[in-house]
Specification:
It is built from eleven helices and no strands. By secondary structure, it is an all-alpha fold. Helix 6 runs parallel beside helix 8.
Length: 238
């Protein structure tokens, strides 16, 4: 019985039904391979209830979105297949094996999260709208939950990019994020340099100079930080 229900769900999401007419200009829907619901759920890091509410009368917008996403991935893969080099008689072009084509599926974008968005975008939005404490807490929570998986990029450059984007308008938040980054990457010359820049936006040149000196100490070849340090020392604001 459980198997039958699973198959039925797959048919609903795929838009397959008895007597359904073929899509205009394309193959019959019934000939399309049915999506694997378990694979889709794992790609989004969700359970069945994410798309299929327990109450049948409850609106299910995520299920409608899922149908559109399934159709989108099929279309992309079809275009990839069509774009492969297929030489005709007398053509010297080298054919591209079908196996060499990169297939698109749910995990290509989602990578284990329900709403695919770059970590830098998530943290930047929180920092601007809710402040430093909320952004730091969110980063720690996401790192605890997803670190070691393909969901988010927890490399040193993620928070550096956020700090550089918001430092002019939100220097305190940028400073907090760089201090957080240095917890995980204490020897990151780029993080110390980004911290220094955020301090200059807060008109704290003494702290900026200290941070730049650390950046140069960690990476003597960081000529950008070295130049900024010399420049800052020459016109240090009081």
């Amino acid at each position: 019985m459980r198997v039958q229900i699973t198959v039925l769900c797959m048919m609903v999401v795929a838009g397959v039904g008895r007597g359904q007419a073929p899509a205009a200009g394309g193959p019959p829907q019934a000939r399309q391979p049915l999506p694997n619901m378990q694979v889709i759920a794992e790609s989004l890091g969700v359970q069945c209830e994410f798309c299929h509410p327990a109450e049948r009368a409850t609106p299910a917008p995520m299920r409608d979105i899922a149908r559109q996403m399934i159709a989108m991935t099929r279309e992309i893969n079809a275009r990839v297949d069509a774009a492969l080099v297929k030489p005709t008689a007398g053509d010297a072009a080298t054919p591209v094996p079908a196996a060499a084509a990169q297939r698109v599926d749910c995990s290509t974008c989602h990578r284990g999260v329900a709403i695919p968005k770059a970590l830098s975008e998530i943290i930047a939005q929180t920092a601007v709208k809710q402040g430093a404490d909320a952004a730091v807490t969110q980063y720690r929570d996401l790192r605890k939950q997803y670190y070691g998986r393909a969901a988010y990029d927890f490399g040193e450059n993620t928070l550096i990019s956020v700090s550089q984007r918001i430092a002019n308008a939100k220097p305190a938040e940028a400073i907090a994020l760089m201090k957080l980054n240095l917890e995980f990457f204490p020897n990151s010359s780029q993080s110390w340099a980004a911290l220094a820049f955020a301090y200059t936006r807060k008109v704290d040149d003494a702290s900026a100079i200290t941070a730049l000196e650390k950046a140069v100490e960690l990476d003597p070849q960081n000529n950008i930080a070295r130049g900024q340090l010399e420049q800052l020392k020459s016109y240090r604001r009081r």
